[in-house]
Design a protein that fits this description.
By secondary structure, this protein is an alpha/beta fold. It is globular and about 60 Å long. Bound molecules: pyridoxal-5'-phosphate (PLP).
């Protein structure tokens, strides 16, 4: 299987696409062809790992990693990904729980898969590959957890001092020796600028072999299609109906993975992307004009994206707004509506949802009568205990910590404080 840039550069292999992350012309990688499946192709696939093996095997055609697929998927799915029916009248609603991974959010799936692939391709104990991650909260934890203790790999997390929550900070700083956590005296943008500057610096690059585990890497996108495949197959076998998915959306990676799964023949009905007050995608669907904005801060902070980079993939894959409107819908949900949805979810479902997941439950509650006839699966992208300062005051009680977060919060956390300049970063990288 070859991978093409959305901007036309020459095709590369999977291994090269995984290593490079982004194409030489600045475009994003897409598989050159998409395999097509029949539902019966999955008859003997009993769990998500087996479904994922069938689904992803064609993507590894010609890859050095082809013989390791089973091991890579076993490392990816070290946790369950259940779909739970929700107690609503009519019983046509379930929730896909993507928050049982090591950092209790869906990014664990993509990060674990990418780590399993990259460490096999590039792991080198004498000269470790150094993954640089600038994070405003969630991504850094997922990447650190995924590469933690992997031989020949090192992760350097840069986060802005005082701008992440206490629990988030802990989650960025509690890993083993191959993860260096840097508390930068600056804002998230300073962290991002430092990563760029380090990667562009020839001396530092030759010393440290830098790479990134960016969310646009194809190695984070491909595995995300597997939980849509697994959930839709199980639902279809049980009910004979194709479920629709309602997907909290920021950079559009998770939503695009669902679009790919449906295009490959999985039994998936309608798709609704739900954004927060960042309306770039919603406006595009309405006006046909793609106008990236600077991002607005909302309660669903991991979705605060004003220029969703995966739209470039989606437009190349499907077409422009006039085509996309036929294939999916988009909503935009305000902070006020998110707060209300968290309260309603708690009252109706019997448990709290996180602010991101609440954009999906809000959207489900406001479907018209015809759409309510459809079976729907709300995608829960994070555990509410990660956002307890928002959720707990709304529901008036505390959210029990899941075991994965208890485990993380009980570990010692260590960070190195650095100034927001390249000299301080270079010293920290050298261990001074
Ligand atoms: C990253 C994230 C999202 C948005 O996912 P995209 O793939 O960027 O659209 C939604 N919810 C949570 C909790 C996230 O961490």
């Amino acid at each position: 299987m070859n991978y093409l840039s959305t901007r036309g550069a020459a095709p590369v292999t999977l291994d090269e696409a995984l290593r490079k992350g982004i194409a030489s012309d600045g475009g994003l990688f897409l598989p050159a062809t998409l395999p097509s499946f029949d539902i019966r192709d999955f008859d003997s696939a009993e769990d998500i790992q087996a479904v994922a093996g069938n689904l992803l095997r064609p993507f590894f055609d010609g890859s050095e990693l082809a013989d390791d697929i089973e091991k890579i998927l076993a490392e990816t799915y070290s946790f369950p990904v259940p779909t739970t029916p929700l107690p609503v009248p009519g019983g046509k609603l379930s929730m896909l729980e993507l928050y049982h991974g090591p950092t209790a959010a869906f990014k664990d799936v993509g990060a674990a898969f990418l780590a399993a692939c990259l460490s096999r391709l590039e792991g080198n104990a004498a000269s470790p590959l150094t993954i640089l991650v600038a994070t405003s909260g969630d991504t850094g934890g997922a990447v650190a957890a995924a590469f933690d203790k992997r031989p020949g790999m090192r992760v350097v997390v840069l986060f802005p001092d005082g701008r992440v929550s206490e629990r988030q900070e802990h989650q960025l700083c509690c890993w083993s020796d191959n993860v260096l956590s840097l508390k930068v005296q600056g804002a998230f943008d300073d962290c991002q600028a430092l990563v760029k500057a380090a990667m562009a610096d020839p001396r530092l690059s030759s010393l440290h072999r830098f790479s990134s585990a960016n969310s646009i890497n194809i190695g984070r996108l491909l595995p995300q299609s597997t939980y849509y495949a697994d959930a839709s197959l199980r639902h279809f076998r049980r009910t004979g109906n194709k479920p629709g998915f309602i997907i909290p959306t920021g950079n559009l990676g998770n939503g695009f993975a669902c679009v790919m799964a449906r295009a490959m023949g999985l039994p998936i009905g309608p798709i609704i992307l739900t954004s927060n007050a960042n309306r770039t995608i919603a406006d595009y669907f309405e006006t046909n004009e793609w106008l990236p904005q600077s991002s607005l801060q909302t309660l669903a902070s991991a979705m605060d994206v004003g220029d969703p980079s995966n739209m470039e993939r989606l437009r190349k894959f499907s077409g422009d707004a006039s085509v996309l409107r036929e294939q999916m819908a988009v909503t935009s949900v305000s902070d006020k509506q998110i707060r209300l949805a968290i309260k309603q979810d708690f009252a109706e479902f019997g448990f709290a949802t996180c602010p991101h997941t609440a954009t999906a439950s809000h959207t489900w509650r406001h479907l018209d009568a015809a759409a309510r006839q459809q079976d729907w699966i709300i995608v829960a992208t994070a555990h509410p205990a990660k956002f307890e300062t928002i959720v707990e005051p709304l529901i008036g009680e505390s959210v029990p910590l899941p075991a994965v977060l208890q485990d993380i919060l009980s570990r010692p956390a260590v960070a190195t404080r650095i100034q927001a300049d390249l000299k301080s970063l270079a010293a920290a990288l050298a261990g001074n």
